Amino acid sequence: MMRQDINKLEEKSIFIIREANAKFKNLAALWSMGKDSTTMLALARKAFLGKVPFPVIHIDNGIDFPESYKFRDELAKKWNMKLIVAHSKIREELSGFSCCGANKTDALKEVMDEHGFDGLIVSIRRDEHGIRAKERVFSPRNKEFKWDYKNQPAEIWNNYTSKLEKTDHIRVHPLLDWNEVDIWNYIKKAKVPMNPLYFSKEGHRYRSLGCTHCTVPLKSNAKSIDEIIKELEGTKVEERSGRQQDKEKAYVMEKLRALGYM
Amino acid sequence: MDKYIVTMLGEKDHGKSTLIGNLLIATGSTTEERVKEARVKGKRWEPAYILDSFSEERENEMTIDTTRAELVYKGKMFELIDVPGHLELIKNMMSGASNGDFAILMVSIKKGEGFKPQTRRHLFISQMFGIKALAVAINKMDIAGYDQKAFEKAKGEVEEYLKSIKFDKPVFFVPVSAYNNENLVEKSANMKWYKGLPLFSLLMDFSKRYYRAAKSADEGMRALVQDVVDTDGSKAMFCVMYNGTIKVGDSIRAEPNGARAKVRKLHLKGKSVSKASAHSNIALVLDKEVDAERGSLIYGSAVKPYKKGEFQGRIFVINGLKTGEKGLFIRTNNNDIPIKSMKIVSTLSPTTGKAARGGSAIATNDSAVVSVKLARDYPLERYVEHNELGRFAIYRGEEFVGVGIVE
Lengths: 262, 407
What we know:
The complex is a heterodimer.
Chain A: H1 6-23, E1 27-30, H2 35-47, E2 56-60, H3 66-78, E3 83-87, H4 96-115, E4 119-121, E5 138-142, E6 167-172, H5 180-189, E7 204-205, E8 218-219, H6 225-233, H7 244-248, H8 252-258
Parallel strand pairs in A: 1-2, 1-4, 2-3, 4-6
Antiparallel strand pairs in A: 5-6, 7-8
Helix pairs in contact in A: 1-2, 5-6
Chain B: E1 3-10, H1 16-26, H2 32-38, H3 55-60, E2 67-73, E3 76-82, H4 90-97, E4 102-108, H5 117-128, E5 133-139, H6 148-164, E6 171-175, H7 199-209, E7 222-231, E8 234-243, E9 245-247, E10 251-254, E11 259-268, E12 271-273, E13 275-277, E14 281-286, E15 297-300, E16 310-317, E17 321-322, E18 328-332, E19 335-348, E20 355-357, E21 361-362, E22 367-374, E23 391-396, E24 399-406
Parallel strand pairs in B: 1-3, 1-4, 4-5, 5-6
Antiparallel strand pairs in B: 2-3, 7-8, 7-15, 8-14, 9-13, 10-11, 10-15, 11-12, 11-14, 16-22, 16-24, 17-21, 18-19, 18-23, 19-20, 19-22, 23-24
């Protein structure tokens, strides 16, 4: 994994976040307390003179890690963010694909309807998964939250699509161009507060965070940001290899995306 | 580190995705997991599956939407953008190609494939999009028996076309077999008659010789207002700096009416600064209020903005249009400005080379030079001098109609 020019990435993301804020009447962002969405919030603070001007949504299924809840409450307070917690039900009979698909997406639909959000910032990156490489910066979702990947709008230069008649809302992806290692470089450079689960404890750390049911840690002694960067620069293993949903079936991710999962 | 964006051009089935797949493997730029996952049970191994990650793409063996692959080799980073070759997917091709620095054109030498109309369109569009250099890969040389004459013939055909559209970028030709990995990273032992560089070395060479940030005609400060917000009782303008530099204390002018003001405060990435330069996203506070709003140009006092409400430009349309029709607008820097009237100066078919003067309609997949009057003033510059301020997309309601550049 090689580092990109962090200043260029930062400028482009600030541009996209400002563009979203200017274009949508009612914008919100998803926050999982993971490294990507937390980095996005740090970028939003840079874009808007120290404030996050839109509400941040945590889809809470009640089985996130205790460290994540603590991190959420502390940072929301410190950065003075408007936090919306959307509770999703965990149905014990569901796991993996159906669990993420049904539970998280249903809760997101409810909170989007309730608040009438027309734009939603989601901190996905192209290098995470083959499917995500095909995403637009501004990506429409219909009433069922489906991603019509076969008929995406044109996106020529920075001419984005911010409203279509049949869309429910537009997903905005300010971090598409970033790679995993760029995120960590930025966390270091901008001193972004980070969820402690990413750092090694007793020989293990989390590289990608889902909820407690589906995420497994990897063997790692990386206790600091520098050690994580060093580890990533030498790896050939996929970032989401500890996430069960990606492995179950070859095209699970495509289905999840089409269903509106983030 | 800089990342060079390379667009893959060419017809469906000419091997674009196969080429990228094999380049990724040969340069060690993909993960083992992704290669393993791309193997489809009971099917011949296709490197293209690494990229075509929609199940439908693999099952039907075609690329539906743009995909991107990052290639890292000998300290350089390239982003290869694979675009669909099908005619009906040209909108996706254009989305992928609009930000390219270089392009690789794939032309299959296999009987019945060859240099097709769609390939000509791709070349024409990439010329409009301002790529800096082009590598033409004549593919499937293994099927042609590695025959030099066959290569020269295919090369001649492409050269003739490039001449007809006055293609003015550096062009290099490479005979390859994308599937067999020949002349991609290593030179092929089967084509000793080819004395040039393998395809990937050509890209490395492009990055050294032809990659420069677009050079502006002048250093005059130009920034476009993205948003105006109230902060602590004063108005801050979020602007994208496209040219020159700006300093606290500078005298500036602001559209729509050219009002003069001085820069009181500047913010960059959340910090108060005294100076900012091109390609940064600033927040600007002036010493007095001006009428500027989203889409207004802020410019140095010595700058003369080129065009406001009317311009002449070259356009390429994927959905035919009539000059008298209502509801057309341009979208530039994500701002929509209705077209009041349009006159056709001349039309040109990128596939047949057929040109005509005047007229009242532009056919689907044709190009034209048009003179356009907008329904309101909007700042535009010549594309060759200020890329970002001189390019636009054309829409009819929600329908994407085409692209254009200001001449």
